[in-house]
Design brief:
The complex is a heterodimer of chains A (about 290) and B (about 220).
Chain A: H1 2-45, H2 55-65, H3 67-72, H4 79-97, H5 101-120, H6 122-134, H7 143-167, E1 173-175, E2 178-180, E3 185-187, H8 195-212, H9 215-247, H10 255-258, H11 260-280
Antiparallel strand pairs in A: 1-2, 2-3
Helix pairs in contact in A: 1-5, 2-6, 4-5, 5-6, 7-9, 8-9, 8-11, 9-11
Chain B: H1 5-22, E1 44-45, E2 48-53, E3 67-74, E4 81-88, E5 117-128, E6 136-146, E7 151-160, E8 163-165, H2 168-180, E9 187-195, H3 201-222
Antiparallel strand pairs in B: 1-2, 2-3, 3-4, 4-9, 5-6, 6-7, 7-8, 7-9
The chains are: A mainly alpha (about 290), B alpha+beta (about 220).
Amino acid sequence: MKERMLAAVPIAHWRRNFLPLAALCSLFVFTYYQTLQSLVVHWWTHPFYSHGFMIPPLAAYVLWTKREDFRHCRKKPSWAGLGVLLVGLIVFVVGVLGNEEFIEQVSLPLTLFGLLYFLGGSKVAGLSWFSMLYLYLMIPPPLPVYKAVSLELRLLDAHWVAVAARWFGVPIFRDGYFLYLPDIVLEVADACSGVFSIVALLSLGLLYIRKQHWGWHRYALLLLLVPIAILANGIRILMITVLTYYSGPWILDTTFHSFNGTFNFLLSLGMLIGLGMLLRCIPVWRSAR
Amino acid sequence: MSLVSHSAWWIAIVLLGIAGAVTRIGDPVQGAPQTLSLPIIDSDVGDVTCSAIEAQEASYHDPGVHLSGSWRCRGHGSAPIEVYLGYLTRSAGDEKLRSPATNYPSGPGDAQGQRGWGYESKRKVKIVLDNDGQLKLPVTVLLLRHASGRRMAVTYWYHLYGTPLPDELQYRLALMLCKIMRQPSGTAIVRLASWVVDDDLDAALAAQRALATALYPRIKSALP
């Protein structure tokens, strides 16, 4: 009898909240329909941002891994959460009325977090903040921002590749992001800047670090995520430069060059995991969990 | 004051509903683009002589604009400067002026279009328009570089209802404010470009500065 009563409580709770939950979900989709559509179109049409498709499922997976904590934590509506929700919605309205897609998109995770915080309280917010922050990785940066970051990375890559190529006996001269070899000029183009490899590595690297590392190891790896992605991209450009010098420009037409994003991502992920394994050799203080 | 769970749900529903409804209000400035004739740049602008060039001859295009014109201006001893003026009668959705930092020149025979271009440097500067130094025109100076090794100096600014705006960020912020305030959102872009000859970037920029100083009052009086 007691067991039946206990089982009935969640069902009754679910039934009581079903209508507002359904209304809330429908309204969220109604409100954010165009924003969601613009994101999907961007992921679909921009090959460098196709990893955007995997971000929401991964964020949902992180939430799902905490389902027991969610079930047992104390849920109480929070005024602070209402503030976050209001900020999210104001940012959204400003973005839509001002025709700025990026601002609309930025508001989405904030509104979602505001809803969870407002309806569930601080415990729920504490359990969900990582997933909501993680959702920002699905948002493409505005083109001028991307171009500015890309330019800096291209110059940095060209600089150190010009230095390192000489170690392999390649006579090379650098001018900006152009690399002059005896018979050919190589351009470290936008696609070679590695911006999207950084975002792709952040997407999987954050989950890996969160799941596999604790204490200062975690912070060290977090700090090294972006440098690792930049280094991996530099290694790829160096390899292409050296191979072009020694074997000819045909290397530029190979899949090795055209699949630069995949290569970069795999190399940087390998470097991250390798570094993580090395760090494991150093003891870390770990709190009892 | 503590919130009851039940009320919180309904507050959230109402807030989302309001946001959804507000953002679906139509744009009052949409409709047929207003007609506007671009300011005609006279044959003599300051110390330089300008002549209009056909769109297919021009090296720079912004496919999104509603009206545009290109001129080629020649001064004493400096490389010819190509002037581009594009006007967007209203900005709705993705309809925005493109930035010369991301939209590159393309010639008539350039089947690939815009390939091989990138920019090397980009900075904001103020061009002094009068002797007192009171009137200043904020512009962006861009140094483009083609894969062939040639460099092109570009000076550009946006123009939104009497206000010159130097770069994309300020243009987009101003445009956003215009849209929120439900004001008309017609904007223009003025782009001056010339090849850098003998690596003398200063000479190219000085010629562009002089032309911008002479052009600005005409453009300001001709545009809304």
